[in-house]
Amino acid sequence: MTEIQRAQATERLYFQDAYLQEFSARVTGRESREGNPVVVLDRTAFYPESGGQPHDLGWLDAVRVIRVEEENGLILHFLEKELSAVDQVRGRIDWPRRFDHMQQHTGQHILSQAFYEVVKGETLSFHLGQEESTVEIGIPAIKDETLQRVEELANRIVFSDLEVKTYFLSEMELTTVPLRKPPKKSGPVRVVEVSGFDYSACGGTHCRRTGEVGLIKILKQEKIRGNLRFSFVCGFRALREFENRRRFLQSASVVLSAEESEVAACVEKNLAELKNLKKRQKKLEEKLSFFEAREMLAGNPGGIISGLYPDKSPEEIKFLALNLVHQAEVLAVLAAYRNENFHLVVAASDSLKVDVRGVIPVLQAEMQFKGGGSPTLVELVSPEKDKAGRAIELALEFFKTRTGRV
Ligand SMILES: [Zn+2]
Questions:
Q1: Which residues of the chain have pLDDT under 70?
Q2: What pLDDT, on a 0 to 100 scale, did the predictor assign at position 404?
Q3: Cα separation of 215 and 205, whole Å?
Q4: What is the pTM of this model?
Q5: Same-domain pairing of 152 and 83
């Protein structure tokens, strides 16, 4: 039996006082797990990961506590490095992190009960994330105005600054309180009561008054397993979220030279204009290709025309190739870049009676290529951008031997 297995159940100081930031305790067990020293204390204010609430961080003497877990009634403190061989230690939890967890967790109790009161939606799960928290509510859909009522009720509870009480009840006594959800285990249960509003069986850490939770704001909803999952933030997180969104909206408003309330309409208008311009540009490029092809053919009236065009799009070289093979009896091998890829278009006039697809295996023998086409036009794309020149060379050699043209 290891020292840890022999240790007595840890006294959880956070049950009595969630605001306790520093404490002294006796080391009752030590071992090493996954390369980290682990210690057990006779008492601790460190909260272990459970019930959707992440574990605390902090220090035992000067050594950082990097993870806290519960195991058979023991609370395991995972340490960054070995603790000196002392019996008594001083523990200090990372208070801003813990208080943030308390705000989100207490906010969840309030929000869950608000969902229950307004739409009889039961909370199926809760997750306290690094950025946002989520609750999965057992309802298939909700109207915007109903969701607003849920949020308003939750915030009214916050602004009423109700007391949040915690107490243990025996199984018999439990029948006297309207628990939102039946407890998962038998025996005495720790009840967290948002004074007269919500009663939950919960072992987490909570604010002592609802006012400390601060604003509760629902950010988004998504469907999951036929239910709805809501993301929300409370307290300081809500404040930061407001500030981030304000800054974002302000910069969008400056870039667009529009009032903040006009940003969406302005983006919509610009997108419509952009769409029109793209259409117009495409038409002009098609027209331009005709003249470009004519000019190119003037200098090469019946051979193989090739080139790499870094300034043209893959669509433009396709227009150009089609114009070339329509205006004269030629074969065109043209390349262009897009992002990290290069595109190759090979086209031949019908009258040449060459199946340009024959070049594909020749190219694929030396580099990666995807694509295909018809006997008179193939469009290929390769991630090996630096081999565009070599691809043109290979295609030219292939067609020279096939057609006898230069
Ligand atoms: Zn709780």
A1: 1, 301-302, 404-406
A2: 66
A3: 18
A4: 0.75
A5: no
| Cα angle for residues 169, 174, 179 (degrees, 5° grid) | 110
In a domain, 283, yes or no: no
- Residue 203 alpha carbon to ligand 1 centre in Å: 6
Say what the pLDDT of residue 406 is.
53
State in Å: Cα 189 to ligand 1 middle.
12
End-of-domain residue from the set 204, 228, 253 = 253
Number of domains comprising the chain: 3
Is 227 a domain residue? yes
Rounded to an integer, what distance in angstroms lies between the CA atom of residue 255 and that of residue 342?
33
Quote the tokens at residue 192. Answer: 């967290």
Boundaries of domain holding 44: 3-93
pLDDT at residue 220 in the model: 97
Question: 166 C-alpha vs ligand 1 centroid, how far in Å?
Answer: 10
Q: Which helix (H) or strand (E) holds 397?
A: helix 388-403
Q: Same domain for 359 and 303?
A: yes
**CB distance 133 to 127 below 8 Å:** yes
Same domain, 103 and 89: no
